[in-house]
Specification:
alpha+beta; five-stranded antiparallel β-sheet; three-stranded antiparallel β-sheet; 12 helices
Length: 411
């Protein structure tokens, strides 16, 4: 550039959260210059930095940091060179105000992202597990236990199993609510920095002013509905309330994942992601509920367990098919060429998740085709318990890779 620079414009490829967008400039000596940041236009992707004074000859670096619509923070920099010598001051007793830039401060070290730390990954893993178990225990009660009890009312004490399922639902829904606190704390540190957590409105800006915050609020509202329904589950309306809350709860992960960041067709990607969560819960969440309630202590006899599995298998097969379809839609939306699966960090994590999914499906197929026919025997429940434990281990690994995936930038 052959002219002095005072205003710098930046255009992002996607809409970003304006209140969490930061721009600054450093010179070759590491001195930092800041100014007034404003949105340029109404598209939510164009911003300008107005410096208090001109930049003259030298090499400068523009540092930017922005939050995507899904709450993910991305930072980078680019360089530019100015070839405009600083004018000589006019000879005068009072030269007046200078127009050369003064550094605001020494450039600080780059802020490391917290969302990829083991603590953040564990919090997301536990959140996903709590969501799936909440929805899964609801569907296990309404779609499996109820049907099995209707087919064989004298096979076992079904009321005991229903009460145990209610206990699982209460624990899972309460966990959904408790995990909201570390989720918000981690996101606040990521978006504002740990030094700014005590500033007035720091949390409010995230909860009410971002798409990620909407997902957090959905999880809060849905979790309260689910907990209320689970507590009221001794009454006929309790499980209905729990089911309504479970449907709403399935939408919460979409707003803090990559589905919310897609501007074109966001309604489709968010709905597909919610359906994916609900289907996964109907499959592995219901299996986890059955494992906890029935298989860990073999609370029901062999005939009752056989009836439960016969009612569970169609639900699991349908849910697995829906999970595959919606997962494929998400993969096509987030990756480009097939080579992204092994050339990018996001693609490699997705490939590992797909491998774990294949392992889960394989064990589930073994349960359906080979173990189910033996459930009428005394040894059948024990064999099913062991194979179901293996299936749930694969499911936990899927959740682990999902917890990693949502923090990685898409290709």
């Amino acid at each position: 550039m052959t002219e002095p620079v005072r205003e710098i414009s930046v255009v992002f490829t996607q809409r970003v959260e304006a209140q969490f967008t930061d721009l600054s400039v450093t010179d070759a000596n590491g001195n930092m210059y800041t100014g007034i940041i404003s949105a340029a236009g109404t598209d939510g992707s164009s911003f300008s930095l107005l410096l208090p004074r001109n930049l003259y000859s030298g090499r400068y670096t523009v540092h930017w940091r922005a939050a995507g619509r899904d709450g993910h923070m991305v930072a980078d920099s680019f360089h530019f060179t100015v070839d405009a010598p600083e004018p000589l001051p006019a000879a005068s007793a009072d030269p007046g105000p200078t127009t050369d830039p003064q550094p605001t401060a020494q450039a600080p070290a780059g802020r490391e992202s917290i969302v990829s730390t083991p603590t953040a990954v564990v919090v997301r893993l536990l959140t996903f597990a709590a969501i799936l178990l909440t929805i899964g225990s609801t569907l296990f009660r309404t779609a499996v236990l109820g049907r099995a009890a209707g087919r064989a009312p004298n096979a076992t004490d079904w009321d005991v199993l229903v009460r145990a399922t209610r206990g699982v639902a209460i624990f899972a829904a309460a966990s959904v609510l408790v995990l909201l606190v570390p989720r918000l704390l981690i996101q606040a540190i990521e978006m504002t920095g740990s030094a700014n957590l005590l500033e007035p409105g720091a949390f409010d800006r995230i909860v009410t002013g971002t798409v990620w915050g909407r997902g957090w609020m959905i999880q809060l509202i849905a979790g309260l509905i689910c907990l209320y329904g689970a507590i009221r589950a001794t009454e006929p309306t309790g499980w209905t309330i729990l089911l309504i809350g479970s449907v709403l709860l399935a939408f919460s992960p979409a707003f803090s994942g990559h589905a919310a960041a897609i501007e074109q067709g966001a309604v489709i990607t968010v709905a597909s992601d919610a359906l994916h969560v609900f289907a996964a819960a109907a499959w592995v969440g219901s299996l986890a509920a059955m494992f906890i309630v029935v298989l860990t202590r073999i609370r029901a006899g062999a005939p009752a367990i056989a009836g439960l599995v016969r009612c569970f298998s169609p639900l699991a097969l349908l849910a697995a098919a829906v999970a595959v379809i919606t997962g494929t839609v998400a993969a096509l939306a987030h990756i480009g060429p097939l080579s992204d699966l092994w050339r990018t960090g996001y693609g490699r994590a997705l490939s590992l998740k797909l491998a774990m999914f294949a392992g889960t499906a394989s064990v589930g197929f073994i349960n359906w085709r080979l173990i189910r026919p033996t459930l009428g025997t005394e040894r059948g429940p024990g064999v099913l318990r062991n194979s179901s434990a293996v299936e749930l281990v694969f499911a936990v690994l899927i959740l682990l890779f999902t917890a990693v995936l949502v923090a990685l930038p898409t290709p």
